[in-house]
Design a protein that fits this description.
single chain; alpha+beta; L,D-transpeptidase catalytic domain-like; eight-stranded mixed beta sheet; 8 helices
Length: 238
């Protein structure tokens, strides 16, 4: 499916160069520096689906993104930031075959909250997570190993993700052992970090055009998101 011009404009933000304090280029996060030996991530187990209300919104945003040409693949990653970091709050869903492929732990930004994420931002240097619909794009090998670039599709909500170098990557501070020791996962500088034992499998599965939907019950975003109100706004799509 052809990606519309709006996506090309968003991706063009790469030309702005690197932003200091970004998730992908930062020194090891403070939580990781403090962590001693941590247990290896538990084997992934395909668990229940996201909560019905979250899944309904995620599917609505995914279908709108497909209709508008932003999403190429029938895969949907759902992150429910309303859940504590100690719960497996990331799902990768095969929409076409109606099945969950992965259900994993995922970290939020260090300034979004402790065990619970409560604050979100689109601003470079905020070290907070962002909400809304993203496109999973290309991969590269960085300081965290295999990493996946995310393109934010929502103006004013997450469309500076590429400038902020918000990527999906693996981290030692995302593990059952770390959570048991600290009562929460470690935190990133805004990136959705995954357990280092499974991140490469997840990234390789969702790369190159699938949807990533990050949820929190923020009233302003829920009311204004173009991808959650597609029927009313589709005629105005770029």
């Amino acid at each position: 499916m052809k990606v519309v011009g709006g996506l090309r404009a968003i991706a063009a933000g790469l030309a702005a160069g690197m932003i200091l304090g970004s998730c992908a280029t930062a020194p090891r996060a403070r939580d990781q520096q403090l962590a001693g030996p941590v247990a290896a991530p538990a084997a992934s187990s395909v668990a229940p689906w996201p909560r019905r209300e979250v899944l309904d919104l995620a599917l609505q945003a995914y279908r709108c993104g497909r209709t508008l040409g932003y999403i190429d693949r029938p895969l949907l990653t759902v992150i429910d930031y309303s859940l504590p970091s100690t719960e497996r709050r990331l799902w990768v869903i095969d929409v076409a075959n109606r099945r969950v492929l992965f259900n994993e732990l995922v970290a939020h930004g260090e300034r979004s909250g402790e065990n619970l994420a409560v604050a979100f931002s689109n601003r470079p240097g905020s070290r907070q997570s962002s909400l809304g619909l993203f496109r999973a794009d290309d991969t590269y090998e960085g300081e965290h190993g295999l990493s996946l670039r995310l393109t934010g599709l929502e103006a004013g909500v997450n469309d500076r993700a590429r400038d902020r170098r918000i990527v999906m990557h693996g981290a030692a501070y995302v593990s059952e052992g770390f959570a048991a020791e600290r009562g929460r996962l470690g935190r990133s500088w805004g990136c959705p970090a995954l357990p280092s034992g499974v991140h490469a499998q997840v990234i390789d599965r969702i790369r190159d055009g699938s949807a990533v939907f990050a949820y929190y019950p923020d009233p302003r975003w829920l009311q204004s998101s173009r991808f959650l109100h597609c029927d009313a706004r589709i005629a105005k799509a770029p």
